[in-house]
Design a protein that fits this description.
It is a single chain. With 322 residues, this protein is an alpha/beta fold. The protein has a domain of 211 residues: NAD(P)-binding Rossmann-like Domain (Rossmann fold). Strand 1, helix 1 and strand 2 form a beta-alpha-beta unit. Helix 2 packs parallel to helix 4 and helix 6 crosses helix 8.
Length: 322
């Protein structure tokens, strides 16, 4: 951990969503860097949508640094069906945490937003200064607008009260402990599962949606956790959104081919062009991240995929033995 900026080793750090995908890796990274006091409340201990519970928790536990990763979220289908829930729950969590942070003089607050906050027609790669140039994709409206509201609240709290905070906009994350259930997994986990199951069955081919030409950016979760820690240390900075990504673009076809090779699937890969491709290109500009953090993620896609595959193989074996 750098000697510059906020010394996290001497801080009592609250991580919301500590049991989740990114949260669990952030907790591990904090502890590996010598942070001994990490608060990880469950929903039963502190329901983040209830301001009174959040205020009571902050007053009793006195966190000095807050990493707000918890979110009410789901896939596209869930977000479309639960627009009001996504908005209200995420907005309530953010309001409760900011109010409690101000009341208890928290030193630093980090908030993770999302790339889906960008306007529907934003130029690619996403530049932070285009965030407010238009509305987000309608399918994500409730979730995205709540996240945007959280950014605006932090900026207002910084301006009025001097609250030190930062906002990260992570790229599409993957890695160990990601969701692999078919209804809620992202493209990386879904591809790994499809290739491994086809390999185990001895299938001659797999069929993937679309044409394989869309371009995406993938961020290994341990690199994301490292980025969170580095951003936390930038004490006193204004909460201008900052992309957290790799700057490396990969087509879906390249991803599928890489996964197939790594898992040992020898069959052919077919594309169902009657299925939707989604956006043709999604990636993040990382200039601001490089400048502020003096850092870039170090895990290549091939290396990250191999680690994720190994973890999923082990998880499957444990599930089978249970």
């Amino acid at each position: 951990m750098s000697d510059e900026g906020l010394d996290l080793k001497g801080c009592r750090v609250l991580v919301t969503g500590a049991g989740g995908f990114l949260g669990s890796h952030v907790v591990e990274t904090l502890k590996a860097r010598g942070v001994s006091e990490v608060l990880m409340p469950t929903r039963d201990a502190c329901n983040l949508v209830k301001p009174d519970e959040v205020q009571a928790f902050f007053e009793s536990q006195r966190p000095e640094v807050v990493v707000h990763l918890a979110a009410a979220q789901g896939g596209v289908a869930w977000q479309k069906a639960n627009q009001a829930t996504a908005f209200l729950d995420n907005a309530r969590m953010m309001e409760s945490i900011v109010l409690a942070s101000l009341e208890t003089n928290v030193k630093r607050l980090l908030f993770t937003a999302s790339s889906i906050c960008y306007p529907r027609g934003a130029a690619i790669p996403f530049q932070e200064n285009t965030l407010w140039d238009g509305p987000p994709e309608p399918a994500h409206l409730g979730y995205a607008q709540a996240k945007r509201g959280g950014i605006a609240l932090l900026q207002a709290a910084h301006q009025q009260h001097g609250l030190s905070s930062c906002v990260l906009m992570p790229a599409n994350m993957y890695g160990p402990r990601a969701r692999f259930d078919p209804d809620r997994s992202n493209v990386v986990a879904a591809t790994i599962r499809r290739c491994m199951e086809a390999r185990d069955r001895g299938d001659d081919s797999i069929t993937c949606w679309g044409s394989g030409t869309p371009i995406r950016e993938f961020l290994y979760v341990e690199d994301a956790a490292e980025g969170v820690l580095r951003a936390l240390q930038q004490e006193g900075s204004e909460p201008a959104p900052m992309n957290l990504g790799t700057g490396v673009e990969t087509t879906i076809a390249e991803l599928v081919e890489m996964v197939a090779e790594l898992v040992g699937f020898k069959g052919s890969i077919r594309w169902d062009r009657d299925r939707p491709d989604g956006a043709p290109r999604v990636c993040m500009a990382v200039d601001r991240m490089q400048e502020r953090l003096a850092w870039m993620p170090s895990t290549s896609l091939a290396e990250g995929l191999q680690r994720t595959i190994s973890w999923w193989e082990s998880a499957r074996l444990q599930e089978a033995d249970a």
